[in-house]
Design goal:
single chain, Thrombin, subunit H, 90 residues, 6-stranded antiparallel β-barrel, mainly beta, 7 strands, 51% strand
Length: 90
Amino acid sequence: MSDIKRKHIRFNAEANTFVAVKIGDNEPFGGLAITESHGGCSAVFLSNDSFSENGTCYIKVGEIDPLRAEIRWIMKVDKDLVKIGFQYLE
């Protein structure tokens, strides 16, 4: 995980906030938001080789419009799940 200081206050996402992440030509990956802020969010997903730190994607969190984002960090939760931090680029 990055040691960069946060610029925005994080708060817990509403229960069951769906996150869709589009990377390249792949079908979107679905996950659940954990935290949100003005500058980004974190979410959990099934483990997938398409996620890579510093990679760019489009992310839709709940009802907000899709935004371009960068994957800042990936943390393995267990053999099936990863928690990923995103920074919005727009």
